[in-house]
Design a protein that fits this description.
The chain is α/β, with parallel strands linked by helices and about 425 residues long. It contains 14 helices and 18 strands. The protein binds cytidine-5'-triphosphate and magnesium ion (MG).
Length: about 425
């Protein structure tokens, strides 16, 4: 699914985003409200507002902040988005209600977003809004679940025991922003005001409220970068998804004479070409670490992820330590069928083990399919996480020319920059 790059003036005028940022961040353990916690020098609230600004999909932005929190109020007031600030309540649901109460009359669509998902890419906002504009009344971004999930019974005085295992391929983890037809959501909250405490507390997100009231809730793809920052390791993971700031790095060990030798990085290049598999073979399409369920996959010894493979070769080339064939070739059966991200993580490990740190990797994909635009940020995040360094992917068609143009195959070109840390 492609997110549109622009909406009409009216569509934007009638859309609001509510960022709930009134939580205390108990589990993060900083002793300050979570939205104030810094990530690479900017507060989580600023990161969230930056991405809402980049999405450019709403005329109204409402920030729900802890009561009497002057520092966050100042941050919001100084942000170019100039959000309308209101005070939150004791629970997330109370904070959402405070945000809804501040909606301007005539608001058609509202996106409710957790400031704790500070790095949610703008594309996710665009996808949610386009689904609403296409007629959905409730839309949530979701990602597949990696863990097996068990249902348990918690009888008093006994260890919880397993009562069932839902089929994992039907489970999804839910992210934000959650998008709604605003009048429907307001009516749903109105109806829930009379509920007793136990019933009200069982409602953990707005989509659930809509479900209970019999409204259909649609899903769009979420993103790895939209992780909810809850504990300290989440903050470290989120930081690894941000571009590396060169001034924060100290790649050179101090020189004995007190001077640093000039930093001379090394560049590398990698190219990978894969044919699209014969339709009779029915292979899954994996590219840039992502699954594209609507496309026929690429042929190859591994999953055929040309983008990840080109990135690996560029890294090996930059470090001067051989190539893909040498490290993961057909004589290494343990890599048969390995995913692109597995290979990229291993290539990055080998490069570091050879005494280099990675500056960045850039990949240009050329092919007719899959359609890449709506998932580019997701691809960057997944590959960056695998490499432990910024990876950016760009994509183009070949204007109908060559095997990329007919759809018979794809090409990926990559460059990488590494520098010695020895
Ligand atoms: N939130 C809110 N008002 C509350 C509680 C939570 O606006 N009373 C917001 C948080 O700021 C966050 C989102 O809801 O953006 C999700 O909540 P969570 O991740 O649980 O954040 P905190 O409540 O701040 O963290 P903790 O539960 O560890 O205290
Ligand atoms: Mg909480």
């Amino acid at each position: 699914m492609n997110a549109p790059t622009s909406f009409s003036e009216q569509e934007i005028q009638q859309t609001a985003v509510i960022v709930v940022a009134a939580g205390s961040g108990t589990r993060l353990g900083y002793g300050i409200p979570k939205a104030l916690v810094p990530l690479a020098g900017r507060s989580l609230l600023e990161h969230a507002l930056d991405r809402i600004q980049l999405a450019g999909c709403a005329a109204q932005v409402i920030a729900v902040l802890p009561e009497d929190e002057a520092e966050l109020a100042a941050i919001a007031a100084n942000h170019p988005l100039r959000p309308h600030c209101v005070s939150g309540g004791a629970t997330r649901n109370d904070s959402v209600r405070a945000g809804l109460a501040a909606l301007e009359p005539g608001t058609e669509r509202v996106l409710i977003h957790d400031a704790a998902r500070a790095l949610t890419p703008p594309e996710v906002f665009l996808q949610v809004l386009s689904a609403l504009l296409a007629g959905a009344r409730a839309v949530i971004p979701v990602v597949p679940v990696v863990d097996t999930i068990k249902q348990v019974a918690t009888d008093p005085g006994r260890q919880p025991h397993v009562t069932g295992t839902p089929a994992r391929d039907l489970l999804r983890a839910v992210q934000t922003p959650q998008g709604f037809h605003a009048p429907t959501l307001l009516a749903a909250h109105q109806r829930a005001t009379g509920w007793d405490r136990a019933k009200a507390e069982a409602i953990t997100d707005d989509a659930m409220l809509m479900e209970i009231l019999g409204e259909r809730v649609d899903t769009v793809p979420g993103a790895a970068a939209a992780l909810k920052i809850t504990t300290k390791p989440d903050l470290v993971l989120a930081e690894s998804m941000l571009p590396v700031h060169p001034s924060k790095e100290s790649p050179m060990p101090p020189h004995s004479g007190g001077q640093q030798p000039p930093l001379i990085p090394r560049t590398g290049i990698g190219i990978d070409v894969h044919a699209v598999a014969d339709p009779a073979e029915s292979r899954a399409m994996w590219l840039a670490g992502l699954h594209f369920p609507e496309d026929q996959g690429l042929s190859g010894h591994s999953d055929g992820d040309a983008v990840a493979h080109a990135a690996c070769d560029a890294l090996f080339s930059a470090a001067g330590i051989g190539d893909l064939g040498a490290h993961f070739g057909t004589d290494r059966p343990e890599y048969a069928g390995a995913s692109g991200t597995t290979l990229l993580a291993e290539a990055a490990r080998l490069v570091r083990a050879a005494g280099f740190e990675i500056g960045n990797v850039a990949v240009q994909f050329v092919g007719r399919r899959p359609k890449f635009a709506a998932r580019r940020t997701e691809a960057d995040a997944v590959l960056s996480q695998a490499a432990g360094a910024p990876v950016s992917v760009t994509a183009t068609t070949s204007d109908g020319l060559g095997y990329e143009g007919t759809g018979a195959g794809v090409t990926a070109y990559a460059t990488a920059l590494v520098y010695s840390v020895r």
